[in-house]
Amino acid sequence: MSDFDGLAIAGRVATPDDPDWEGARAAWNLAADQRPVAVAFAESAEDVAATLSFAAEAGHRVAAQGTGHGAAPLAPLDGTILLKTERMRGIEVDPEAKTARIEAGVLSAELGAAASQHGLCFMPGSSPDVGVTGYTLGGGLSWLGRKHGFACNRVAAIELVGADGEPRTVDAGNDSDLFWALRGGGGGYAVVTALTVELLPIAELYAGALLFDAAVGADGVKAYRDWAAGAPEEITSIVRFLTPPDIPDVPEPLRARPLLTIDAACIGSEADGEAAIAPLREIGETIMDTFGWMPSAGLSGIHMDPEQPVPGIGDGMTISELPDEAIDAFVAAAGPDSGSPLLLSELRQLGGALGRPAEGGGALAELDAGFVMYSVGMPMTPELGEAIVQRLDRLEEAMGPWSVGAYFNFKDRPTEVESILPVEVCERLAAVKRRWDPDDRIVANHALGAAPA
Ligand SMILES: Cc1cc2nc3c(=O)[nH]c(=O)nc-3n(C[C@H](O)[C@H](O)[C@H](O)COP(=O)(O)OP(=O)(O)OC[C@H]3O[C@@H](n4cnc5c(N)ncnc54)[C@H](O)[C@@H]3O)c2cc1C
User: Fold this and answer.
1) Which of 96, 211, 267, 344 could disulfide-pair with 288, CB 3.0 to 4.6 Å?
2) How far is ligand 1, taken at its centre, from the CA of residue 185, in Å?
3) If you ran DSSP here, which 8-state letter would residue 413 be given?
4) CB distance 124 to ligand 1 below 6 Å
């Protein structure tokens, strides 16, 4: 007899007594040690509603999770039911309306493939198996971002179950405060069961990555910075120091080899893309050049993000601009001769539509910064984990003079809410939280609905 026998759902409820509990409680980020009281694997909006109603009766909190990519700031989940949506994977594309209705557990690559069949494209980020819902609720920094803004501002409607257990559909005309909050303010106000997202008529584009030896160092990053300053909004790009792990999944010549990589997606013709990328090829001898004309579904492969769960300790901050001193500081802390134990440290270019208020936009209507920096390491031993944390601290201190806050989806460590969004936005989010979840039933990875200090 378990305390959760009363939780009747079509999906499954796992508890610590189950033999597969370790797998049930795990997140995509294997370094997140989640210890909820139970895990509900919902299969429908009805299951979500039943879980929220049960939690309210039993005095538990509820944390929704698509994949657990963003789980690091969420653990340990004391007294909380972890509500996994990974079984909710329905996708309906409406090619006429150029929209897709996706259930809460759909992955980025799944939506990319479904939209691509109709010559359409969602706003994908770099990871193929990130959950569209969590990615979008936190903003959604996409390969198409400098031209088309954050993914959260291309959401037409959100189906959800409120903390009171009631299903609702919110949009610009219905419960618009909740609709606003969920678009960039994270998921702490309700449990989303489906999103209707706009699709763009982008069937193919020029995209890929250039891999150089990391020895190109600060000169390479400065050349990238100068190139990026003149790049049109059709191009969104990333520069990073990357040392691929020494494992069989990585092609032999790249294993444990310190690299500088530049990835980009270029909306427009193949010739325009080729011409735009050409100057980057002059930075040094390329070890690998994956640029090419590809279906938009290929975007989630160009950054070569892992496609299965891995342990990671990471963190990020937003950077106003990159003068030479900032690049020198970045390279000294994360570059080839820095002794950094990190897997990667990267700078993603913002600007363009990402920096302009989206019309009718959500809580993240714009982001006023030049770049977002993100770094992560794989804690294969406790000692390495400690070294990674120390290096993240050192890197953030080195880049502190140029830091202007944080971007929700790349903030992996707990932080003050007002470092993620402006204080007046946080106050509005707190009002939404008080209205829709007055008992603080719903737990999110970043509690942006908590009143700012
Ligand atoms: C390898 C990698 C690459 C990434 N690339 C990008 C990128 O290019 N651009 C970018 O913007 N971000 C990127 N991210 C960050 C990623 O978008 C966030 O970690 C995001 O939170 C992941 O969403 P998820 O649903 O997969 O994760 P989860 O950990 O499952 O969800 C994160 C949070 O979202 C909320 N949430 C999820 N589902 C629901 C729901 N149904 N209802 C209510 N709330 C919900 C919860 O508060 C949850 O704690 C990347 C992360 C990794 C690890």
Assistant:
1) 211
2) 12
3) S
4) no
Give, using CA atoms, the residue closest to atom 50 of ligand 1. 127
- 425 in Cβ contact with 408 (< 8 Å): no
Cβ–ligand 1 distance for 354 under 6 Å, the answer: no
- The three state secondary structure string of 226-263 is HHHHHCCCCEEEEEEEECCCCCCCCCHHHCCCCEEEEE
User: What's the confidence (pLDDT) of residue 398?
Assistant: 98
pLDDT tens track for 197-243? 999 999 999 999 999 999 999 999 999 999 999 999 999 999 999 99
Q: In this structure, which long-range contacts are made by residues 327-332, counting pairs with CB atoms below 8 Å and at least 24 apart in sequence?
A: 327/218, 327/221, 327/222, 327/225, 328/218, 329/398, 329/399, 329/401, 330/221, 330/373, 330/395, 330/398, 330/399, 331/217, 331/218, 331/221, 331/241, 332/398
Ligand 1 contact, 140 CB (< 6 A): yes
Is 192 a pocket residue for ligand 1 (Cβ < 6 Å)? yes
Cβ 412 vs Cβ 315: under 8 Å: yes
Residue 137 CA to ligand 1 center (angstroms) comes to 8
- What b/e sequence results for 120-141 when a residue is b if at least 16 CB atoms lie within 10 Å of its CB, and e otherwise? bbbbbbbbbbbbbbbbbbbbbb
Which residues are CB-neighbours of 201 under 8 A, at least 6 positions away?
A: 98, 119, 120, 121
Which pLDDT score, from 0 to 100, does residue 217 have? 97
Cβ of 223 less than 6 Å from ligand 1: no
Please tell me the distance between residue 349's alpha carbon and the centre of ligand 1 in angstroms. 20
Q: How far is the CA of 252 from the centre of ligand 1 (A)?
A: 31
Q: Enumerate long-range contacts of 398-401, CB under 8 Å, 24 or more apart.
A: 398/329, 398/330, 398/332, 398/333, 399/317, 399/319, 399/326, 399/329, 399/330, 399/333, 399/373, 401/326, 401/329
Query: In angstroms, how far is CA 408 from the centroid of its own chain?
Result: 8
CA distance 67 to 70: 8
For the Cβ of 67 lying below 6 angstroms from any atom of ligand 1, the answer is: yes
> Hey, what amino acid is at 342?
L
What's the confidence (pLDDT) of residue 453?
61
d(CA 348, CA 369): 11
What is the percent of the chain where pLDDT is above 70? 99
- Whether the CB of 348 sits within 6 Å of ligand 1: no
Flag residues of the chain having pLDDT under 70.
1, 451-453
